[in-house]
C-alpha cells in the first residue's frame, strides 16, 4: 500500500488504533475520521491519539444532530427493533459513518476507505455495502478482517507499539456506543449461560439498586416523533440524552439476547438502550390509539423488514426508500402524549391521549347510554360466520381431523 491515501473510521479503541499503526507500517498515508454520534468520548483526546499513533491527518466531526434527524428519527417512526429487541443503534450509525468516510476521502483525494470490523461481524457488511451504494469507485480495506489477528494478539501488538488502549486481558470487553444505545460483547459474555457482571453496564442502574419509588415520565409526539419530555420541548438528540439518564436510573433498558448475525452465526449480545426502548414503547402505544387496525397490521410487517434492511446494511437502497415513504404516510395522525411508569427495571404504560384518537368512549363503554348499536351485531355475525357454516354444511361439520 505504498503511498496509498486511506481514510480510516477511527474510534480510538483497540481495533482501529492497531489498524492506524498497521497502515503506517505498510507505507500507506492514513487519515483518521472520528464521528461524534453521542458516544461520550472526548473528541480532542481521540484526535490527539490518532495523530500520535501516526495519522497523516484527523477529521473530528460532530454528527449528533444529523444522526438523530436522519437516522434515529425514521427508525422511531418504523419502531425498528431487530429480532423484536435490538433498537439497531450500531446499525443505524454505520451508514452515516460510511457516508462521512466518503466525504473525507473526496477532501484529501484518497482512493481507499477503511474500517476496523472483523470477518465475523455485521459492520463489515454495512460499511462495504454502503460504500458500494454511494461511492463504488472507492476501495474498502478491512485490516482486522484480513490479518485474522485474535483479540489477545491485538492487545499484545498494541503494547509492543506503545499504543494506549482501554482493553486489557483482565477486562476484554468490546464496547460500542452512540446516542441511541450501547453494546458490550466479547470475553466472558461469549458464554450465553454467563450472567453479565455489573461492571458491564454504564447507562443503567441494576434493577435491585434502582429507587424504591416509581417515577412517571411523559413523552409527547408530533407526527410520530418525540418532541417533549415531561412537558418540556426538546430537540430529539437532547430528549434522548435526558431520557437515557431518567430511564436508566430506574434500571430500564437492558437487553440480553441471542442474535442472528447477517454472516450466518448466532451471537450473544448485551445492549443498553433506555431511551430507545421507552420511546419505541410509547410510540407503539400512541399508534395503537391513532391508526386503524389494517394499517397497524400491515405496518407490523413493514417494521420487521425495515429492521432487517437496516441490520443488513441496506440503508441506501430502493426498498428502504420505499418503506420510508409508507411509514412516513402512516405518521400524519400520530400526535399525542404517552405516560410511562418507570420502576425497578420495567417501563409500563400508565396512560395515553391523542387529539385524533380513534378510541371513542361512547362506543366502547358498557354504560346503557352507549352509542354502539348492539341490535346490528346479530346480522353482522351471521354474515361473518357464513364461510364457516358453508364449510360445515359441505363437509359434515368435520373441520378438525381426529
Automatic annotation (TrEMBL):
Gene Ontology BP annotations: argininosuccinate metabolic process; L-arginine biosynthetic process; urea cycle
Nucleotide-binding keyword on record: yes
Binding-site list for ATP: 9-17, 116
Domain Arginosuccinate synthase-like N-terminal per the UniProt entry, residue ranges: 5-164
PROSITE patterns cross-referenced by the UniProt entry: ARGININOSUCCIN_SYN_1, ARGININOSUCCIN_SYN_2
Main location: cytoplasm
Pathway noted in the entry: Amino-acid biosynthesis; L-arginine biosynthesis; L-arginine from L-ornithine and carbamoyl phosphate: step 2/3
MF terms in GO: argininosuccinate synthase activity; ATP binding
Catalytic activity as recorded in UniProt: L-citrulline + L-aspartate + ATP = 2-(N(omega)-L-arginino)succinate + AMP + diphosphate + H(+)
Record-listed E.C. numbers: 6.3.4.5
Signal peptide: none
Binding site for L-aspartate: 118, 122-123
SUPFAM superfamilies xrefs: Adenine nucleotide alpha hydrolases-like, Argininosuccinate synthetase, C-terminal domain
Compartments where found: Cytoplasm
One of the record's GO cellular component terms: cytoplasm
Database matches in CDD domains: ASS
Binding annotation for L-citrulline: 86, 122, 126, 174, 183, 259, 271
Sorted UniProt keywords: Amino-acid biosynthesis, Arginine biosynthesis, ATP-binding, Cytoplasm, Ligase, Nucleotide-binding
Residues covered by the Arginosuccinate synthase C-terminal domain: 173-390
Stored NCBIfam families: argG (TIGR00032), PRK00509.1 (NF001770)
Protein name, UniProt field: Argininosuccinate synthase
Originating organism: Rubrobacter taiwanensis
Organism taxonomic ancestry: Bacteria, Bacillati, Actinomycetota, Rubrobacteria, Rubrobacterales
